[in-house]
Amino acid sequence: MKVQSLARSLAALLASALFVFSVALAGVFLPSCGSLAQAAGIAAGAAGAAGLIDSDVAGAITTSTDAIGRALEEITPEQEYYIGRAVGATILARYRIYTGSPARTLYVNKILQAVVVNSPKPELYNGYHALILDSPEINAFATSGGHVFVTLGLVNTAASEDALAAVLAHEVAHIQLQHSLKAIRTSRITTAVMATGSAAVNLAASGTSLAELTDIFDESITDIVGTMVNNGYSRDQEFEADALALSLLSRAGYDPSSLIEMLRALETGLGNSDGGFGRTHPAPRDRISSANRQLASVPRPSDTRAARGGRFAESR
C-alpha cells in the first residue's frame, strides 16, 4: 500500500509539473485565458492517458486553471476602485487620519488635483483623493482606487509646494502605471499555481478534495495587500514612477527638479532609518541618480515658484 501511495504522489507531482509547464508555454505562445485552460487540459489529458493521474487529479487541475484564468482577466475601473478601497482600509487600520488642520488637507488635495488634471489619466472611477496620516513617520502610499496617503512626517519634510507636488506626483504615477494591480495579478497567479501543485499531491496521498482551491486563491488577496504595504514596489517600478512623476510635474507647471530636491531632503531626513519610507523605497541617492538621467529630456516650464511661496507658507 505504501508503494502504491508513493507512486500516486509521484504521479501527481509529475502531473502538476506538466500543468505548470503548460501554463508557462501558454503565457509565451497562447496569452489568452482560454489558451491557458486549453494548455492545462492538454497536459491533464496527456497525463491521464499515460496513466499518471486519475480523473480526480485531472479535474482538480481544470478547476485551478479556471482560477488562474480569472486572475488574468482585465480589471475594470470599478474593480480598481474597490480593490484600492480595500487597500486603503488596511492602511487606515494602521494609521490615524490627521485632523489638526482641515485647511492643510484641502491644500494637499488642491495640489493633487493640479497634478492629475494635466496628466494622461485625469479621471478614475471615483477620482483622486488625498489624506494626511497623523504619523511622524516619513512615508506615502497610493491605491489603484485613486487614494493617496501621505504621512504628516513626509508633508513636513517638503520645503516648498513644488517638493510636496513631487511626492504626490510620484504616488499618482504608481496609480497610473497600475503598479498595485500588477502586484496583485502576479501574486494571484503564483498562489494558484502553488496551490495546484501541493493540492494535487494531497489529493493523491489522502483523497482530500480540491473544491476549495478557488476560495484559497481569492483569499490570498488579503495577504497580498499586506505585502504591498510592508515591502513596497520593486526598484524598477519606483524608478519608473519617478520618471513619470517628472513628466507630471512639468505638465502641471511645477519645476520637475523639485523631485530631486525632495529626494535630497529625504536622504537627510531618513538618515540610517530602516523603517517606513526607507523600507518601502530604494535609497534616495539611487533615485536621485536615476532621476537626474531622466531630467534632461523633460520640458522645463516657466519658473513660477515664487507665486506659490505665500500659500505654501500659510499651509504650514
How would you explain this protein's 3D organization?
With 316 residues, the protein is mostly helical. The chain folds into 2 domains: 2-75 and 180-229, no CATH class; 77-178 and 231-315, Metalloproteases ("zincins"), catalytic domain (Zincin-like, 2-Layer Sandwich). 70% of the residues lie in helices and 4% in strands. The chain has helices at 2-29, 33-49, 55-71, 77-92, 102-117, 152-157, 161-176, 179-206, 213-231, 235-251, 258-270, 277-280, 284-295, 305-315; strands at residues 129-133, 140-142, 147-151. A 3-stranded mixed sheet has the order 1-3-2, with helices on both faces. A hairpin with a 4-residue loop joins β2 and β3. The longest helix is centred in the first third of the chain and has 28 residues, at 2-29. The chain is globular, with a radius of gyration of 24 Å. It starts with a helix and ends with a helix.
Count helical runs.
Answer: 14
Major beta sheet, specifics? Answer: 3 strands, mixed
Strands, count:
3
User: Could you give the order of strands across the largest sheet?
Assistant: 1-3-2
In CATH, the homologous superfamily of the largest domain goes by the name Metalloproteases ("zincins"), catalytic domain
- Quote the beta fraction: under 5%
Order of helices and strands: HHHHHEEEHHHHHHHHH
Uncertain ranges: 17-34, 192-196, 206-210
CATH topology of the largest domain: Zincin-like
What is the CATH level 1 assignment of the largest domain? Alpha Beta
Report Rg. Answer: 24 Å
Strand pairing plus helix content: what structural class?
mainly alpha
Based on the coordinates given, report the CATH architecture of the largest domain.
2-Layer Sandwich
Tally of individual domains: 2
Globular, elongated, flat, extended or rod-shaped: what is the shape? globular
